[in-house]
Design goal:
By secondary structure, the chain is mostly helical. The chain has 7 helices and no strands. The two termini are about 25 Å apart.
Length: about 130
């Protein structure tokens, strides 16, 4: 679902605007905009944690590093994906392959984490 990627890019824009927008509040605002009629989509944890994990690690341009999530796995997935994209940027066009590489072939279903990483990558919002 591309909307989570769009929400991630929008959340970065909200943080950069200032107005005391933390990454957590910016994500919450962006997913309400992206999914105005779906509370379950607004509350989906995996894409949120992937976004906040990247922010927490200081890897998102214009977003200060900090403590934004308790998730370890989704943060790890996002950071691994980012490293894989640095090695092979063409992976951004195949999020299924990217996910399989992130989880090293383990049978684990994705939950929009790669949409977040891919959108931020494509928008040139990730730091090396």
């Amino acid at each position: 679902m591309a909307c989570y990627g769009d929400a991630a890019v929008r959340a970065v824009a909200l943080v950069r605007q200032g107005d005391d927008q933390s990454p957590v509040r910016a994500w919450d605002t962006a997913v309400v905009e992206a999914f105005p009629h779906s509370k379950s989509s607004q509350e989906k944890g995996c894409p949120r944690s992937a976004f906040l994990g990247l922010c927490e690690s200081g890897r998102v341009k214009g977003v200060p590093a900090g403590t934004y999530t308790r998730s370890k796995k989704n943060k790890e997935y996002a950071l691994i994906a980012m490293d894989l994209l640095k090695q092979n940027p063409a992976l951004v066009s195949d999020v299924s392959l990217l996910w399989n590489m992130v989880v090293a072939g383990t049978p684990k279903a994705p939950n929009h984490q790669m949409a977040v990483v891919g959108a931020l990558w494509t928008a040139d919002l990730l730091l090396p």
